[in-house]
Amino acid sequence: MTSPKKPIPKLDYGIILSLMLLAIVSFITLYSAQSTGQYKANFVVSQAQWYVIGSIAIIFIIRFDSDQMKKISKYAYGFGMLLLVILLLLPVSKFTPIINGAKLWFVIPGVGQIQPSEFMKIATIMMLALVTSTHHERFLHKTIKTDFYLLIKISVIFGLPFMLTIIEDLGTSLVFVAIFLGIVFVSGITWKLLLPIFSFVTVIAGAAMYLAIWQRPFMEKFGVDPYQFKRIDSWLDPFSHRTDAGMQLVKSLLAIGSGQTSGKGFGSREVYMPESHSDFIFSTIGEEFGFVGGSIVISLFFMLIYQITKTGLDTKNPYYSYICVGVISLLTFHVFQNIGMTIQVLPITGIPLPFISYGGSSLLSNMIAMGIILSIRYHYKKYMFASEG
Protein backbone atom coordinates (compact mmCIF):
# COMPACT_ATOMS: atom_id res chain seq x y z
CA MET A 1 0.00 0.00 0.00
CA THR A 2 1.25 3.47 -0.87
CA SER A 3 0.96 6.32 1.59
CA PRO A 4 -0.16 9.82 0.52
CA LYS A 5 2.57 11.83 -1.15
CA LYS A 6 4.55 14.14 1.09
CA PRO A 7 6.19 17.37 -0.10
CA ILE A 8 9.93 17.49 0.45
CA PRO A 9 10.98 20.55 2.55
CA LYS A 10 11.35 23.57 0.32
CA LEU A 11 14.51 25.05 1.81
CA ASP A 12 17.76 23.45 0.67
CA TYR A 13 19.59 23.12 3.97
CA GLY A 14 22.57 21.52 2.22
CA ILE A 15 23.31 24.75 0.33
CA ILE A 16 22.75 26.81 3.48
CA LEU A 17 25.20 24.58 5.39
CA SER A 18 27.79 24.91 2.61
CA LEU A 19 27.52 28.70 2.73
CA MET A 20 27.91 28.68 6.51
CA LEU A 21 31.04 26.52 6.31
CA LEU A 22 32.56 28.72 3.59
CA ALA A 23 31.79 31.79 5.73
CA ILE A 24 33.62 30.21 8.69
CA VAL A 25 36.63 29.48 6.46
CA SER A 26 36.55 33.09 5.24
CA PHE A 27 36.45 34.57 8.75
CA ILE A 28 39.26 32.34 10.04
CA THR A 29 41.53 33.03 7.08
CA LEU A 30 40.83 36.77 6.99
CA TYR A 31 41.55 37.04 10.72
CA SER A 32 44.99 35.61 10.06
CA ALA A 33 45.56 37.64 6.87
CA GLN A 34 44.75 40.97 8.51
CA SER A 35 47.44 40.39 11.13
CA THR A 36 50.05 41.30 8.52
CA GLY A 37 51.56 44.71 9.27
CA GLN A 38 50.45 46.36 6.02
CA TYR A 39 46.73 46.04 6.87
CA LYS A 40 44.88 48.31 9.27
CA ALA A 41 41.27 47.48 8.38
CA ASN A 42 39.28 44.80 10.17
CA PHE A 43 38.43 42.54 7.24
CA VAL A 44 36.54 40.02 9.37
CA VAL A 45 34.02 42.57 10.63
CA SER A 46 33.53 44.04 7.16
CA GLN A 47 33.16 40.59 5.59
CA ALA A 48 30.64 39.61 8.28
CA GLN A 49 28.63 42.73 7.49
CA TRP A 50 28.51 41.80 3.80
CA TYR A 51 27.48 38.26 4.73
CA VAL A 52 24.59 39.71 6.74
CA ILE A 53 23.59 41.94 3.81
CA GLY A 54 23.85 38.94 1.48
CA SER A 55 21.70 36.82 3.80
CA ILE A 56 19.03 39.52 3.83
CA ALA A 57 19.20 39.58 0.01
CA ILE A 58 18.69 35.80 -0.04
CA ILE A 59 15.62 36.06 2.21
CA PHE A 60 14.23 38.71 -0.15
CA ILE A 61 15.06 36.89 -3.40
CA ILE A 62 13.80 33.49 -2.29
CA ARG A 63 10.21 34.76 -2.43
CA PHE A 64 10.32 35.41 -6.20
CA ASP A 65 8.85 32.67 -8.38
CA SER A 66 9.76 31.84 -11.98
CA ASP A 67 7.48 34.40 -13.64
CA GLN A 68 8.68 37.20 -11.39
CA MET A 69 12.30 36.18 -11.91
CA LYS A 70 11.86 36.32 -15.68
CA LYS A 71 10.53 39.87 -15.48
CA ILE A 72 13.42 40.91 -13.24
CA SER A 73 15.95 39.41 -15.67
CA LYS A 74 15.36 42.04 -18.35
CA TYR A 75 15.52 44.97 -15.95
CA ALA A 76 18.60 43.61 -14.14
CA TYR A 77 20.46 43.13 -17.42
CA GLY A 78 19.51 46.55 -18.74
CA PHE A 79 20.40 48.32 -15.50
CA GLY A 80 23.71 46.46 -15.29
CA MET A 81 24.60 47.47 -18.84
CA LEU A 82 23.74 51.08 -18.05
CA LEU A 83 26.08 51.08 -15.05
CA LEU A 84 28.93 49.59 -17.09
CA VAL A 85 28.50 52.23 -19.81
CA ILE A 86 28.35 55.05 -17.25
CA LEU A 87 31.47 53.75 -15.51
CA LEU A 88 33.29 53.60 -18.85
CA LEU A 89 32.29 57.11 -19.93
CA LEU A 90 32.74 58.98 -16.66
CA PRO A 91 36.16 60.60 -16.12
CA VAL A 92 38.39 59.48 -13.27
CA SER A 93 37.29 61.09 -10.00
CA LYS A 94 36.91 60.29 -6.32
CA PHE A 95 33.63 58.57 -7.22
CA THR A 96 35.15 56.56 -10.10
CA PRO A 97 38.81 56.13 -9.11
CA ILE A 98 41.51 54.02 -10.68
CA ILE A 99 42.45 51.28 -8.20
CA ASN A 100 45.28 48.85 -8.95
CA GLY A 101 45.48 50.22 -12.47
CA ALA A 102 41.82 49.80 -13.41
CA LYS A 103 38.61 51.83 -13.21
CA LEU A 104 36.14 49.18 -12.05
CA TRP A 105 34.38 50.68 -9.05
CA PHE A 106 31.88 53.33 -8.05
CA VAL A 107 32.76 54.81 -4.67
CA ILE A 108 29.55 55.57 -2.78
CA PRO A 109 29.94 57.62 0.42
CA GLY A 110 28.82 55.64 3.45
CA VAL A 111 28.68 52.38 1.47
CA GLY A 112 32.13 51.90 -0.04
CA GLN A 113 33.30 50.51 -3.37
CA ILE A 114 30.73 48.87 -5.65
CA GLN A 115 31.91 46.91 -8.70
CA PRO A 116 29.09 46.76 -11.29
CA SER A 117 30.71 43.96 -13.31
CA GLU A 118 30.31 41.56 -10.36
CA PHE A 119 26.53 42.00 -10.39
CA MET A 120 26.45 42.00 -14.19
CA LYS A 121 27.60 38.38 -14.11
CA ILE A 122 24.37 37.36 -12.36
CA ALA A 123 22.22 39.56 -14.59
CA THR A 124 23.83 38.00 -17.68
CA ILE A 125 23.13 34.49 -16.38
CA MET A 126 19.47 35.38 -15.82
CA MET A 127 19.12 36.98 -19.26
CA LEU A 128 20.83 34.11 -21.07
CA ALA A 129 18.55 31.65 -19.26
CA LEU A 130 15.49 33.68 -20.22
CA VAL A 131 16.40 34.02 -23.89
CA THR A 132 17.39 30.35 -24.24
CA SER A 133 14.28 28.97 -22.54
CA THR A 134 11.97 31.37 -24.41
CA HIS A 135 13.58 30.44 -27.74
CA HIS A 136 12.87 26.74 -27.19
CA GLU A 137 9.28 27.50 -26.24
CA ARG A 138 8.84 29.43 -29.47
CA PHE A 139 10.65 27.03 -31.81
CA LEU A 140 9.45 23.55 -30.92
CA HIS A 141 10.95 22.06 -34.08
CA LYS A 142 14.70 22.59 -34.22
CA THR A 143 16.60 23.30 -37.42
CA ILE A 144 20.08 24.58 -38.13
CA LYS A 145 18.48 27.95 -38.90
CA THR A 146 16.73 28.18 -35.50
CA ASP A 147 19.88 26.98 -33.71
CA PHE A 148 21.95 29.62 -35.49
CA TYR A 149 19.38 32.24 -34.51
CA LEU A 150 19.66 31.16 -30.86
CA LEU A 151 23.46 31.24 -31.01
CA ILE A 152 23.35 34.81 -32.34
CA LYS A 153 21.04 35.91 -29.52
CA ILE A 154 23.19 34.26 -26.85
CA SER A 155 26.34 35.76 -28.37
CA VAL A 156 24.90 39.30 -28.37
CA ILE A 157 23.74 39.07 -24.74
CA PHE A 158 27.15 37.75 -23.69
CA GLY A 159 29.12 39.99 -26.03
CA LEU A 160 27.89 43.36 -24.76
CA PRO A 161 29.09 43.04 -21.12
CA PHE A 162 32.15 41.12 -22.30
CA MET A 163 33.31 44.01 -24.52
CA LEU A 164 32.65 46.57 -21.79
CA THR A 165 34.61 44.64 -19.14
CA ILE A 166 37.58 43.40 -21.18
CA ILE A 167 38.69 47.03 -21.63
CA GLU A 168 39.53 47.33 -17.93
CA ASP A 169 39.34 43.83 -16.42
CA LEU A 170 40.51 40.73 -18.30
CA GLY A 171 39.72 38.42 -15.39
CA THR A 172 36.05 39.37 -15.16
CA SER A 173 35.65 39.23 -18.94
CA LEU A 174 36.87 35.62 -18.85
CA VAL A 175 34.13 34.81 -16.34
CA PHE A 176 31.58 36.00 -18.90
CA VAL A 177 33.20 33.64 -21.43
CA ALA A 178 32.83 30.72 -18.98
CA ILE A 179 29.15 31.55 -18.42
CA PHE A 180 28.58 31.84 -22.18
CA LEU A 181 30.22 28.48 -22.88
CA GLY A 182 28.28 26.76 -20.11
CA ILE A 183 24.93 27.98 -21.44
CA VAL A 184 25.82 27.22 -25.06
CA PHE A 185 26.86 23.63 -24.28
CA VAL A 186 23.48 22.81 -22.69
CA SER A 187 21.34 25.00 -24.96
CA GLY A 188 20.66 22.19 -27.44
CA ILE A 189 22.38 23.95 -30.33
CA THR A 190 23.58 21.36 -32.80
CA TRP A 191 27.25 20.44 -32.82
CA LYS A 192 27.22 20.94 -36.58
CA LEU A 193 27.31 24.64 -35.71
CA LEU A 194 29.32 24.56 -32.49
CA LEU A 195 32.18 22.29 -33.56
CA PRO A 196 33.51 24.41 -36.45
CA ILE A 197 33.04 27.65 -34.47
CA PHE A 198 34.86 26.44 -31.36
CA SER A 199 37.53 24.75 -33.47
CA PHE A 200 38.20 28.05 -35.20
CA VAL A 201 38.35 29.91 -31.86
CA THR A 202 40.73 27.29 -30.46
CA VAL A 203 43.05 27.62 -33.45
CA ILE A 204 43.06 31.42 -33.14
CA ALA A 205 43.79 31.24 -29.40
CA GLY A 206 46.60 28.73 -29.98
CA ALA A 207 48.10 30.89 -32.72
CA ALA A 208 47.93 33.97 -30.48
CA MET A 209 49.74 32.10 -27.69
CA TYR A 210 52.41 30.89 -30.12
CA LEU A 211 52.99 34.41 -31.43
CA ALA A 212 53.05 35.88 -27.90
CA ILE A 213 55.77 33.45 -26.78
CA TRP A 214 57.94 32.92 -29.86
CA GLN A 215 57.09 35.72 -32.33
CA ARG A 216 56.99 38.86 -30.19
CA PRO A 217 58.46 41.31 -32.73
CA PHE A 218 55.58 40.40 -35.02
CA MET A 219 53.05 41.06 -32.23
CA GLU A 220 54.65 44.41 -31.36
CA LYS A 221 54.06 45.57 -34.94
CA PHE A 222 50.32 45.32 -34.20
CA GLY A 223 50.61 47.53 -31.12
CA VAL A 224 50.82 44.89 -28.37
CA ASP A 225 52.30 46.43 -25.22
CA PRO A 226 55.63 44.76 -24.27
CA TYR A 227 54.37 44.77 -20.65
CA GLN A 228 51.91 42.05 -21.62
CA PHE A 229 54.82 39.84 -22.64
CA LYS A 230 56.39 40.43 -19.26
CA ARG A 231 53.24 39.15 -17.59
CA ILE A 232 53.46 35.96 -19.64
CA ASP A 233 57.14 35.53 -18.75
CA SER A 234 56.45 36.08 -15.06
CA TRP A 235 53.85 33.31 -15.18
CA LEU A 236 55.97 30.79 -17.07
CA ASP A 237 59.18 31.58 -15.15
CA PRO A 238 58.26 33.58 -12.03
CA PHE A 239 61.58 33.07 -10.22
CA SER A 240 63.40 34.97 -12.96
CA HIS A 241 61.06 37.92 -12.29
CA ARG A 242 60.77 37.61 -8.54
CA THR A 243 61.62 41.28 -7.95
CA ASP A 244 58.83 42.68 -10.15
CA ALA A 245 56.04 41.02 -12.13
CA GLY A 246 56.63 37.53 -10.73
CA MET A 247 56.86 38.53 -7.07
CA GLN A 248 53.31 37.63 -6.07
CA LEU A 249 53.43 34.23 -7.73
CA VAL A 250 56.81 33.41 -6.17
CA LYS A 251 55.50 34.35 -2.72
CA SER A 252 52.39 32.26 -3.30
CA LEU A 253 54.39 29.19 -4.35
CA LEU A 254 56.68 29.55 -1.35
CA ALA A 255 53.74 29.95 1.04
CA ILE A 256 51.74 26.99 -0.25
CA GLY A 257 54.83 24.79 -0.62
CA SER A 258 56.03 25.54 2.92
CA GLY A 259 52.64 24.48 4.29
CA GLN A 260 53.34 20.91 3.14
CA THR A 261 50.77 18.32 4.30
CA SER A 262 49.16 19.75 7.43
CA GLY A 263 50.36 23.37 7.44
CA LYS A 264 52.21 25.48 9.97
CA GLY A 265 49.13 26.10 12.09
CA PHE A 266 46.68 28.95 12.45
CA GLY A 267 48.45 32.31 12.63
CA SER A 268 51.87 30.80 11.98
CA ARG A 269 52.55 32.49 8.67
CA GLU A 270 56.15 33.18 7.71
CA VAL A 271 55.91 34.17 4.03
CA TYR A 272 54.86 37.77 3.39
CA MET A 273 52.07 37.58 0.83
CA PRO A 274 50.61 40.74 -0.81
CA GLU A 275 46.83 40.63 -1.28
CA SER A 276 46.65 37.66 1.10
CA HIS A 277 43.14 38.75 2.12
CA SER A 278 41.71 38.89 -1.40
CA ASP A 279 43.01 37.35 -4.63
CA PHE A 280 45.72 35.27 -2.93
CA ILE A 281 43.77 34.11 0.11
CA PHE A 282 44.28 30.47 -0.90
CA SER A 283 48.01 30.98 -0.32
CA THR A 284 47.23 31.77 3.31
CA ILE A 285 45.10 28.62 3.56
CA GLY A 286 47.87 26.53 1.99
CA GLU A 287 50.58 27.87 4.28
CA GLU A 288 48.67 27.62 7.56
CA PHE A 289 46.60 24.47 6.93
CA GLY A 290 48.61 22.70 4.23
CA PHE A 291 47.40 20.21 1.67
CA VAL A 292 44.75 18.91 4.06
CA GLY A 293 43.24 22.35 4.64
CA GLY A 294 43.33 23.24 0.95
CA SER A 295 41.66 19.94 0.05
CA ILE A 296 38.88 20.56 2.56
CA VAL A 297 38.20 23.99 1.07
CA ILE A 298 38.10 22.57 -2.47
CA SER A 299 35.77 19.81 -1.24
CA LEU A 300 33.39 22.44 0.15
CA PHE A 301 33.18 24.05 -3.27
CA PHE A 302 32.59 20.68 -4.96
CA MET A 303 29.82 19.98 -2.45
CA LEU A 304 28.16 23.32 -3.21
CA ILE A 305 28.46 22.82 -6.98
CA TYR A 306 27.05 19.29 -6.64
CA GLN A 307 24.03 20.66 -4.75
CA ILE A 308 23.40 23.29 -7.43
CA THR A 309 23.74 20.62 -10.12
CA LYS A 310 21.19 18.44 -8.35
CA THR A 311 18.81 21.39 -8.12
CA GLY A 312 19.15 22.04 -11.84
CA LEU A 313 18.49 18.40 -12.69
CA ASP A 314 15.50 18.07 -10.37
CA THR A 315 13.59 21.12 -11.53
CA LYS A 316 11.37 20.71 -14.57
CA ASN A 317 11.56 24.42 -15.43
CA PRO A 318 14.07 24.99 -18.29
CA TYR A 319 14.60 28.62 -17.23
CA TYR A 320 15.64 27.43 -13.76
CA SER A 321 17.92 24.75 -15.22
CA TYR A 322 19.78 27.25 -17.40
CA ILE A 323 20.27 29.54 -14.40
CA CYS A 324 21.80 26.63 -12.47
CA VAL A 325 24.17 25.94 -15.38
CA GLY A 326 25.22 29.59 -15.46
CA VAL A 327 25.89 29.72 -11.71
CA ILE A 328 27.81 26.43 -11.86
CA SER A 329 29.94 27.81 -14.72
CA LEU A 330 30.60 31.01 -12.77
CA LEU A 331 31.62 29.29 -9.52
CA THR A 332 33.65 26.55 -11.21
CA PHE A 333 35.65 29.04 -13.26
CA HIS A 334 36.25 31.28 -10.24
CA VAL A 335 37.49 28.39 -8.09
CA PHE A 336 39.75 26.82 -10.71
CA GLN A 337 41.13 30.14 -11.92
CA ASN A 338 41.80 31.54 -8.43
CA ILE A 339 43.41 28.41 -7.03
CA GLY A 340 45.15 27.69 -10.33
CA MET A 341 46.83 31.08 -10.43
CA THR A 342 48.20 30.65 -6.88
CA ILE A 343 49.99 27.42 -7.87
CA GLN A 344 51.18 28.55 -11.35
CA VAL A 345 48.77 26.31 -13.26
CA LEU A 346 47.00 29.36 -14.71
CA PRO A 347 48.10 32.98 -15.27
CA ILE A 348 47.27 35.62 -12.66
CA THR A 349 44.04 37.45 -13.49
CA GLY A 350 42.90 38.94 -10.17
CA ILE A 351 39.80 36.77 -9.74
CA PRO A 352 38.69 36.28 -6.10
CA LEU A 353 37.92 32.96 -4.41
CA PRO A 354 34.09 32.88 -4.03
CA PHE A 355 32.69 33.38 -0.51
CA ILE A 356 36.20 33.37 1.02
CA SER A 357 38.16 36.29 -0.48
CA TYR A 358 37.51 39.69 1.01
CA GLY A 359 35.32 41.92 -1.15
CA GLY A 360 31.81 43.30 -0.73
CA SER A 361 30.72 43.32 -4.38
CA SER A 362 32.01 39.83 -5.08
CA LEU A 363 30.48 38.34 -1.93
CA LEU A 364 27.12 40.08 -2.36
CA SER A 365 26.81 39.06 -6.01
CA ASN A 366 27.60 35.44 -5.11
CA MET A 367 25.04 35.54 -2.30
CA ILE A 368 22.47 36.88 -4.76
CA ALA A 369 23.28 33.93 -7.03
CA MET A 370 22.72 31.58 -4.10
CA GLY A 371 19.45 33.36 -3.34
CA ILE A 372 18.27 32.58 -6.87
CA ILE A 373 19.31 28.92 -6.50
CA LEU A 374 17.50 28.66 -3.15
CA SER A 375 14.46 30.31 -4.76
CA ILE A 376 14.50 27.61 -7.43
CA ARG A 377 14.52 24.92 -4.74
CA TYR A 378 11.85 26.78 -2.79
CA HIS A 379 9.37 27.07 -5.66
CA TYR A 380 9.57 23.79 -7.54
CA LYS A 381 7.49 20.93 -6.20
CA LYS A 382 8.86 17.45 -5.92
CA TYR A 383 7.20 14.62 -4.11
CA MET A 384 8.39 11.39 -2.62
CA PHE A 385 6.32 8.28 -2.04
CA ALA A 386 6.70 6.03 0.98
CA SER A 387 5.76 2.41 0.50
CA GLU A 388 4.08 0.45 3.22
CA GLY A 389 4.17 -3.31 3.14
UniProtKB/TrEMBL annotation:
Gene Ontology biological process terms, A to Z: cell division; regulation of cell shape
An example Gene Ontology molecular-function term: lipid-linked peptidoglycan transporter activity
Source domain of life: Bacteria
Subcellular location: Membrane
Membrane topology, as annotated: Multi-pass membrane protein
Cellular component annotations (GO), alphabetically ordered: cell division site; plasma membrane
Entry keyword set: Cell shape, Membrane, Transmembrane, Transmembrane helix
Pfam annotation, one family: FTSW_RODA_SPOVE
Signal peptide (residue range): none
InterPro entries, per the entry: FtsW/RodA
Residue intervals passing through the bilayer: 12-33, 48-64, 76-99, 119-136, 148-167, 173-190, 197-214, 289-307, 319-336, 356-376
Name under which the protein is recorded: Cell cycle protein
Gene that specifies this protein: rodA_2
